[in-house]
Amino acid sequence: MKILVLGAGRMGLGAVYDLAHNSGDVDAITVADIDLGRARAVVDTVGSPKVNPVALDVANYDQVVSLMTGHDSTLSCVVYSNNLRLAKAAIDARSNFCDLGGNNSIVDAELALSEEASAAGINIIPDCGLAPGMVSVLAAHAAERFEQVETLRVRVGGLPLHPKPPLNYQIVFSVEGLINEYVELARVIRDGHIVEVPSMTEVETLSFSPPYDNMEAFQTSGGTSTLPESLVSRAS
After folding, report:
1. Which pLDDT does position 14 carry in this prediction?
2. 178 in the Ramachandran plot: left (φ > 0), alpha (ψ -120 to 50) or beta?
3. Is the confidence at residue 217, as pLDDT, over 80?
4. What per-residue confidence (pLDDT) applies to 115?
């Protein structure tokens, strides 16, 4: 299996490392970035002969399609604003596609490509990051284990192992994506219906063991992905 990873940032590095060292079915990995030096740095860090670096500007549609062609699957680890165009390129290249998502409107547009993707014989799966992504899988799994769920709350943040004041926080996500989550509307289930609420509202205080004993959480956009649609039928 041959995999293409777009973006040589922190998420791209993590994805390439996992594919190279923990995915036995993967024979070759291409890591592409507009900065060839960053792609080469990922190759050096991962330390696997399976990985090859390539220079690529994801804004160049024809070059993207050309590079995707011949790869069984493509993973987008670039800024979310590129993902709809990349999903369309994947259809043209007949390469399965997934991304880290985070923007409701773009994800809706990607999901609307379902028939075209099916005709091309591929899958398009957006929102495969942490939140959205893993948290949705964990939340859905937890909900399925109960006959009735009264409340389901999902919280996520960048909490470092060795926090530093004053915020005790670490930016491990794309800054553009993080800002988007703070300004777009958040989708939640209320009174049995999906509604949208402003981000950075409904602030609550959370307490864990020090140094996380005085923290704040609030609504943010994109993190729930399609989870509200999946669970709304169970809401009363």
Report:
1. 95
2. alpha
3. yes
4. 97
Mean pLDDT of the chain: 93
Distance CA 202, CA 178 (A): 18
Residue with tokens 């594919």: 19
The domain segmentation of the chain, as residue ranges, is 2-125, 134-234
CB atoms within 10 A of CB 152: 17
Pair type for strands 96-99 and 124-125:
parallel
Residue 191, φ and ψ in degrees, nearest 5: 55, 40
CA distance 97 to 58: 14
DSSP secondary structure of 181-228: HHHSPEEEEETTEEEEE-TT-S-EEE--STTSSSEEE---SSTTTTHH
Condensed to tens digits (0 to 9), the pLDDT of residues 15-32 reads: 999 999 999 999 999 999
2-6/73-76 β-pairing: parallel
Closest CA to 89 of 111, 119, 59: 59
Contacts of 25 (CB under 8 A, 6+ apart): 1
**117 vs 151, more confident:** 117
Between the CA of residue 75 and those of 64, 127, 234, what are the distances in Å? 12, 11, 32
Topology annotation, domain 2-125: Rossmann fold (3.40.50)
The length of the chain is 236
